Amino acid sequence: MTTALCPQPGIMEIALYQGGASAIAGQSDPLKLSSNENPFGPSPTAVTAVAEAAANLHRYPSTDHAPLRAAIAEVHGLQAERIICGVGSDEVLTLLALAFAGPGDEVLYTEHGFSLYRIFALSAGATPVVAPEADRCVDVDAIIARITEATRLIYIANPANPTGTGLDGEALERLADAVPASCLLVLDGAYAEFFEGYDGGASLVTARDNVVMTRTFSKLYGLGGLRVGWGYASQHVIDVLNRIRGPFNLSKLALAGAEAAVRDRQFVETCLQQNAEQRARLTGGLRQLGVNCDESQANFVLARFADEPEALAAETHLRSKGILVRLVKGYGFPEALRITVGQADDVTRVLEALADFRRAG
Ligand SMILES: *Cc1c(COP(=O)(O)O)cnc(C)c1O
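# pyridoxal-5'-phosphate complex -> structure
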């Protein structure tokens, strides 16, 4: 380090987060299937609510987010006082690390886990610990084997990104049973709604003091640009997080848009049904083309090619057809592409482009 200004230990080990590509040179309107966004956009009622809220931008927003928390609690059957809202679920996941982990502590996540978990651990000055997965699935026993007295947080996305695989209730309960009282089990539910029959971990949170669930408006709700997420935990954990949360972390626009979105159940139902249909089509179509994929419980599919050169060639071919997908080498899958489930026409375009790629190859 050439400067006298030295950041906290661990921070220079953080590599900048790489988001999904959003542009193709020479293409004005690419089909973006690289960031697991809702292909139907946001609910029109959310857009209207944001526009209406704009008239009062001279006023500071609420600090306790009471109306949004009440709406979330009502829709999900939860206790409003145990909900915390953040600037995306990212913020809630970060606050958990900052509040509960520090130098000498360990933060545990899995081999193909979301890349931000390592960043959260290092930001807090804690030591990241990685548990292996089994055939692209979170392996509960491997996690349990790596829990030590120093483990403070365990981050698991269920369903997981970028694999799309999910753990059932029994496996989650077995894991929760093995987590000591001094450690938090964080269930990142960014894609929970897409996993049929899964409550995002709400019942585990209700039953235990050391389980936290996070959810987001960025994926199913189509509001990634608004930046709203939330967490559900024991009263003690919520009280701790609120002490370090910025009092005005969510803007008026964000609060208004998210509240309208969570109340628009018709829009949510339509999007979920479309996703299930198109995900099945995409999965089936890929397999027919000889591209392997696991059964996804989310709004994307991990398409596994023969090797890295083939995956890169497929990505280049898709790009030449105006389609952006996600390279996932950084997640330990150099041979794969993560493809967001789009609308019916989008899925058709992807499958046709890949069929074309197969013929050319
Ligand atoms: C997208 C995503 C998130 C959340 O992002 P926010 O926009 O900050 O709510 C969290 N975890 C995983 C695994 C994701 O893919």
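# post-check
The CA atoms of residues 71 and 259 lie 6 Å apart.
The pocket of pyridoxal-5'-phosphate is lined by residues 88-90, 114, 157, 161, 188, 190, 216, 218-219, 224, 229 (CB under 6 Å).
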